[in-house]
Amino acid sequence: MVDERAVPSAEPSSALDHDPSAQTPPAGSPRPRNVTMREIAERLGVSIKTVSNVVNERPNVGSATRERVQQAIRDLNYRPQVGAQQMRTGTSGLITLAIPSLAGTYFSELAQAFADEAQRRRRSIMLHSTAAGRDEEASVLSGFTRVLGDGVVFNPLLIGEDVIAGLGGTIQPTVFIGEHLAEAALPAGSDYVRTDNERAAHDATAHLLGLGRRRIAYLGMLPTTESRQAHSTSRLRLGGVRRALTEAGAPEPVVPTVPTWSQEGGLSAVRELMEAHPEVDGIVCGNDDLARGVLLGLRTAGIGVPGQVAVIGYDNIREAAFTTPPLTTIDPDKQALAATVLDLLIERIGGYDGPARVIEAPYRLVVRGSAG
User: pTM value?
Assistant: First the structure.
């Protein structure tokens, strides 16, 4: 439990000062094409292999030659072409991150965590939103209309668990994240990195019970078929709430449905909840966006937090520390998850072809004012 460049511009080298291809084109003129490694090699009188070795940071180039090539790369603004790199090396350095949406705060922060970790590994992330629905998620599993990048990180949401379990193997090296997956039936060529949602929700509920709260509500069940799949986020977290209450001999949770996992969904749901169940003194929310709406709804209704009702969220988004009061929440450690996923995926891209691996990412309960 936890309480709470600027880069100076460089002058071009004298050897290239008067080279037309290195000059800025006049306004309105066509953008100049990218120079090639062959042109750099011919200009410097070295082999294409030498330029390639410098571009790919291989060690077998003398320091003086390396500096000449690097200076030419800077002066001519050379940028490796992904297609050419893929033909030459068999890899593009690109990884596709397929997530349900960028509208939710959690997924936008998760995408940034993946971008940060990819840069540390000299890779780039391509974002692919599957918000269009099941067909878009199916396209991820079928390799899109054409293969994109070297591998895929995929967070399924709408596609049925049976569809993934029925796959013989993935088209590309793949690491699954999120839920909606049966661990015992992962396709060949894939791995799975997960947070123990059931245990995390259990810990959140046990914290409320430790504060003396006995009438607990869970806000997170959606009125959709997907939310009732065996391994859906909603169902797993509700299971954790129920287990904690059973262990403590407390009453069953109050479980109204929420229209969406959003601030608006939390706001409307908590108004209806407190009208129907004014005895509720603790609320576990499916995510922090819901919890932010819940805090607003309780405040506008004149219900004190945490005095009358304690509230816990899930995700530890950046805004969680700045709500009124600051939000107690489960922190799933997005950076650690991204690092683990990319390590596994890069091993797959590099040739690992072993059985599917399932790794649990860490989480912690961050205690703040809403349930302190």
Answer: 0.75
Please state the rounded mean pLDDT for residues 284-299: 98
* 303-346 pLDDT per residue, tens: 999 999 999 999 999 999 999 999 999 999 999 999 999 999 99
By DSSP bridging, strand 310-314 and strand 124-129 are: unpaired
* Nearest residue to 287 via CA among 329, 323, 246, 248: 329
Q: DSSP secondary structure string, 28-49?
A: TSPPPPPP-HHHHHHHHT--HH
For residues 117 and 88, the answer to whether their CB atoms sit within 8 Å is no
CA distance 149 to 92: 6
pLDDT confidence tier of residue 131, bands split at 50, 70 and 90: confident
Helix (H) or strand (E) holding 192: strand 188-194
Helices vs strands, H then E, count in the chain: 12, 12
For residue 297, which phi and psi values (nearest 5 degrees)? -65, -40
Residue pair 49/37 in contact by the 8 Å Cβ criterion: no
Q: Residue 97: enclosing H or E segment and its boundaries?
A: strand 94-99
Q: Is the dihedral of CA 272, 277, 278, 280 positive or negative?
A: negative
Closest CA to 13 of 67, 66, 94, 62: 67
CA 366 and chain centroid, separation: 20
Give every CB contact of residue 293 below 8 A, 6+ residues apart in sequence: 262, 263, 264, 265, 266, 267, 268, 269, 270
Measuring CA to CA, which residue among 313, 348, 346 is closest to residue 332? Answer: 313
